[in-house]
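Recall the central idea of this unit: under ordinary conditions, the amino acid sequence of a chain determines the structure it adopts. In this exercise we apply that idea directly, starting from the sequence alone.
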Amino acid sequence: MPVEHVDGATAPEKIAEILARDGCCVVDRLVEPGVMARLREELAPHLEQTRLGPDDFTGRHTRRTGGLIARSAIARELIEDSQVLGVVGQVLGHARNFQLHLTQVIAIGAGESAQPIHRDQWAFDFFPFPKGYEVQCNTLWAMTDFTEENGATRVIPGSHLYEDKLQLGEGDTEPAEMEAGSALLYTGSLYHGGGANRSGETRFGLNLTYALAWLRQEENQYLSVPREIAKELPESLLRLMGYARGAYALGYIDDLRDPIEVVRPELSKTGFGDLPDAQSQLRDGSSGSRQSR
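Accordingly, the structure predicted from this sequence is:
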């Protein structure tokens, strides 16, 4: 089954419907290609200094550059893209809150072999989440054109509903080809993997992922973003980074203080959440995202 493409004006609700059905979707030209070119220029010193991966999964000809909030103003804007966050809010709306999980430029070099097919949610120590219960909603922005030849990410549409821990291969997948400025959105349960780069050039992709706020982040945002930089960031981004409660009574500091108080005391609210709301969940099982960013 091919990967469905939609245009950049598609409503988040429609994209979320496709993700519920297929587990993945490409949004064409979500931003202009020039935005991606400027992002590469902005990150060039860091991209050049990043070491190659140490194993076949991370890629021995692949560089993975993180810490993007501290390093890139453009990345900060893309992290808070309103359309993307609208989709994430739909996909992860069964929880009280979601947060930024990972920021990373993935540069697949010439000669790289195909990455093993996997689920991103396996990062949570291979915990067997119930089928249909999504804990991640991810984006992979094409910084350069993604083609089958240069290592376009390979996906298996519909595999978010497969059994867990399957051993699948490249032959089971479809390439998510797309132009620079486009973005592949996919769930943490989708089976996928980076493609083999048989071209002579590097394929650059921007991986920005989001997860339920009661799960540990793959990239530790508190340590990746120095305090002096965090103090200058807007409240919405700080709370998305994790300076917010994950749920009622989850994530406060010391004497029930709001975690944002560490970097922006003037923005502090109570460290606990809405008690009546939490009690209603116990009574009737209701849920719904309460993104406090």
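The two ends are 37 Å apart (CA to CA).
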